[in-house]
Amino acid sequence: MAYEYLFKYIIIGDTGVGKSCLLLQFTDRRFQAVYDLTIGVEFGARMITVDKKQIKLQIWDTAGQESFRSITRSYYRGAAGALLVYDVTRRDTFNHLASWLEDARQRASSSMVITLVGNKCDLDSRREVGRDEAEAFAREHGLLFTETSAKTGINVEEAFACTARAIYERLQEGVLDINNECSYFVIEFYQRICLVHLVRLCQLSCMNFEKYRILLCRLTCLLINSNFATGVGKPPSQIW
């Protein structure tokens, strides 16, 4: 399906807050109760409509483990939006938000739209983080805010859609420049090359962990190579 814009998203936050489940609920409209920890990054995409414009969201779901922070930090580059996710039933995941936000602000554009997402709101009886406290954090740091449940689907659509609307508004206001080579809009050719190598990683997943991690690092280098993104960098055959 044709689209007019492509926005790159990154989902960040501690391990186990439900980042992968949010992505699965948004892209496939289903919930998977048992989910393996994300190794490095995962990818998803979906079309939405904003102001009668077809927009494709390219979503990178990152690992929350500290051992992968050096890899996931590379994915901030070129992101138009970020979902900063915590678990409303785990106070520690909320306490770590400042660290994740500092990473995002240092490594991404100042124009990136960030939405604070309190996930697992269906588990209200186990809540450790109040909505008012999270809203105050969002106001203090200039973030959008919503609470979601990846399990029931509550507000999952809105979390991604409100971020897209804010990006689109900034685009219309001229805050974002789609023609800038450091823009936050990823060209289709770039996307397809990345997907080819993601498939290759899946096919090689039977390899030992260290070799898998090396391949993932190479993919990261491909993704963050801005010259390649503009069509003048090394072709994949020279990188792989």
TrEMBL record:
GO cellular component: endomembrane system
Keyword annotations of the record: GTP-binding, Lipoprotein, Membrane, Nucleotide-binding, Prenylation
Protein name per its UniProtKB record: Ras family protein
Family matches, as Pfam families: Ras
Keyword set includes Lipoprotein: yes
Membrane topology label: Lipid-anchor
Family: Belongs to the small GTPase superfamily. Rab family.
Subcellular location: Endomembrane system
GO molecular function: GTP binding; GTPase activity
Family annotation (SMART domains): RAB, RAN, RAS, RHO
Species assigned in the record: Opisthorchis viverrini (Southeast Asian liver fluke)
InterPro entries referenced in this protein's UniProt entry, alphabetically: P-loop_NTPase, Rab_GTPases_membrane_traffic, Small_GTP-bd, Small_GTPase
Chief location of this protein within or outside the cell: membrane
